[in-house]
Amino acid sequence: MDLLGGEFGATLHRFIADALVDEAAAARSRQFWLEQQLAEGATLAGVLIDIAESQIACRATLTSGAVLRCRLSVVGDDFMLAVDDHDVEHFVALPAINHVAVESTRAPVGLSSRSASLSLALALAAVAEDRPLVAVHHLDGTSVRGELLRCGADHCTLRVREAAFKSVMVPLASLSHLTSLR
Fold first, then answer.
1. What's the whole-model pTM score?
2. What average pLDDT does the segment 128-144 reach?
3. Number of domains in the chain
């Protein structure tokens, strides 16, 4: 015998089963729309921060043609600091990124934000204090190597040894990425 009785019990079982199906469909719909709203509010910098925080490997393909298989160490307002499989550090200008692929099956959401602001110019100015040997790779695929002397608001200055001209000023707008040579 049915716990709820005869005909009324069967009717209530059908009613409950239908309500459970309707609730499951409504929950899936709510989940879809929440994910849609999250995706619409995402930013590339937020996605990169998510990748950096989770320490998942990624592959960044740049407009210069360079491909970096790396982990992200720092994400600034207009750059990311990528560390490749050989522990070489690369400052990458965000506008120079064609795309970033991750090895994870779950794509980062991209809603992360930061409280402090850090620009490529400010980051390179801080690094320039140590006068590192670097290679500056331009958006057109060319590059120049030298000692990073200083970085201003829109350019950095390198000391080069193998050229007739000893100082080279590189506009940050032409920079694809800057690689440490040490």
1. 0.76
2. 95
3. 3
